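Could you show me some protein's one-letter sequence and the numbers that encode its backbone in two labelled lines?

___
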Amino acid sequence: MSERSVFEAALRDLPNTEAEKVRRALLRHDLDAAWPLVRRHLPDARENPVTLKNTLSGIRKLVTFAQESGESLLAPTPGFAARYLASIAHHAPATQRVLLSRARALYHALRELRVVGPGFDPFAEVRGPELHAPPGEEKVVYGEDEVARLVAHAGVEDRALVLLGADAGLTTGETARLCWEDLDLAGDHLRVHGREIVASERLTDALRAWAARGEGVLYARGSLFSLTDHAIRARLYKLCRKANVEYRAWRALRHRYALRLWQETGDPQRVADQLGLGTLIAVRPYVRLEGRLRRQAQEGSGDGEKPG
């Protein structure tokens, strides 16, 4: 019997428990098959859809690395974690640390499921790079004048896109999946993943203008945009060039919204709720960001005016 046949026969003989289902899947590097069970055992009871999506993306990167390296996730060779860290070294230090935390989240779930032993963690001794600044100090945002230039140079569709990021804090994924049925433009509200977001007047106007290009607000149905996440980011890049605005990633629009919401309310729970953040700890970077921008404003003008 060939080595592959022995391997497949061994898989068929495993008991059909949750742990064995996950074990079978990960032996094949099949994260999609394992994910429904793995996600229920992640640390911190991660339930927020955005957090889960980001966690899945980070774990998928690890699984892909293991598959391409010929490594077993359940019995990796010595140095596996260090080699994975080297493979993501081209990312920013903060991103590397996030990816490592998601790798650790996978092994936390595997221990909870008893797929691996209680002390098994190949990433236990691996440390990410030191951050040169506390979280939040490295966040970048679009300035209000830059958002205004983007809006001024945008067509009807792109204006709605940009303001969903800058005035509602939506991610590209949320924007791509947004449906007309999620909007209550009479009440200036958007419904996204069970949370209600108050829409600004200019965002409401932009959405009404976009709806008017089709059936109008009263009759519009289905997706607002026929765009993927990548296409939305590409639209922003082209618009920045057109408006002579320095391009930053889409999340800089979301950071802009979060920062302004914090400045206006001073309420971390409100910020977390409106952005769909799973924990109040995730709001702290925006508090630090405001402090950094305030110091810069004071150094530049000599007064205490809030940045905004």
